[in-house]
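[recover] target loaded
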């Protein structure tokens, strides 16, 4: 069980809860929107403690090697400035939430938040360092891609990682991808928690 949230060195990372990854979107996670109410409760808990909150988004150009038409594996999704790229309308991000964007480079897939930048162009890792963040609580979409990549990169960079197991969802391109991603994150050193654990 994780320790109590410490606002001096803990941060919440809400990964890619965007319309295109939710039911009705172009690359929907099955029942992906079920994470929204839980993430809202995590957001409120971190907000009350004045802990840092980050929200990532895919923000792709229309032409990118990430998409099938240009050699990638995915249908077009989260194209910058489109409705599909917007955060889910029920996701209750606070004014203090730091938005980070990834996937702008047409030559990169950019699954990990560690490939993201804030509105001023500052890298995610630099922002975390400036705030003294040492532990990341990660939830969002999708377990088997951007959540996994972010968690593994965080561990590689020396952060402690807590994956919010009740607030993630998998694409499961191949059945079981989500479960395999969870085992991979656990094997790399991530711990797992639910809202009741915090």
């Amino acid at each position: 069980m994780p320790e109590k949230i410490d606002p001096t060195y803990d941060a919440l990372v809400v990964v890619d809860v965007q319309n295109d990854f939710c039911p009705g979107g172009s690359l929907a996670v099955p029942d992906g929107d079920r994470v929204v109410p839980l993430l809202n409760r995590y957001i409120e808990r971190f907000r009350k403690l004045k802990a840092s909150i980050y929200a990532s988004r895919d923000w792709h150009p229309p032409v990118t090697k990430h998409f099938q038409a240009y050699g990638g594996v995915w249908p077009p999704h989260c194209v910058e400035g489109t409705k599909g790229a917007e955060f889910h309308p029920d996701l209750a991000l606070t004014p203090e939430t730091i938005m980070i964007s990834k996937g702008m480079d047409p030559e990169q897939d950019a699954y990990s938040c560690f490939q993201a930048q804030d509105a001023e162009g500052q890298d995610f890792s630099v922002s975390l360092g400036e705030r003294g963040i040492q532990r990341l609580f990660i939830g969002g979409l999708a377990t088997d891609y951007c959540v996994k990549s972010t968690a593994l990169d965080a561990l590689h960079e020396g952060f402690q990682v807590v994956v919010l197991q009740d607030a993630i969802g998998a694409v499961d391109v191949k059945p079981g991808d989500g479960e395999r991603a969870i085992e991979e994150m656990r094997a790399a050193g991530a711990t797992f928690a639910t809202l009741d654990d915090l």
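[recover] notes: Strands lie at 10-15, 52-58, 98-102, 135-141, 160-169, 191-193.
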